Amino acid sequence: MREDRTHHRATICLLTALIGTLLLSACHHDATPLVPGGDPEKGKAEIVTYGCGSCHTIPGVAGANGMVGPPLLSWSRRSIIAGELPNTPVNLIRWIEMPQAIEPGTAMPNLGVKEDEARNIAAYLYTLK
Q1: Domain 40-125 falls under CATH 2.60.40.420
Q2: What's the pLDDT tens digit per position in 49-85?
Q3: Between 115-125 and 40-49, two packed helices, what is the crossing angle to 10 degrees?
């Protein structure tokens, strides 16, 4: 009988520890989306190459203090792109590549950004917390 109680307590302790671990891991959520294949450092360089900072303020990018477009501060915490798209890596990459196809007439021009470059730029933007 005593062995049954000991086994029962050990089982309860193990289950409690397991449930606690699961709950803690569920609470600890890194909201930063991953951009598969994206390189944030290349993205930072491509932001400079494409002159994104002439319209946008972009933290960490020298000279990126434009006031035409919205500042891209805390990008990873935003929920919407261009006022209409959910902020996901796929949508951001599409937006960077072809903003006019998504929102015709938007002030953001199609700059000829290739898919791999857009992926890198998105990876950099998601580092901005």
Answers
A1: yes
A2: 999 999 999 999 999 999 999 999 999 999 999 999 9
A3: 110
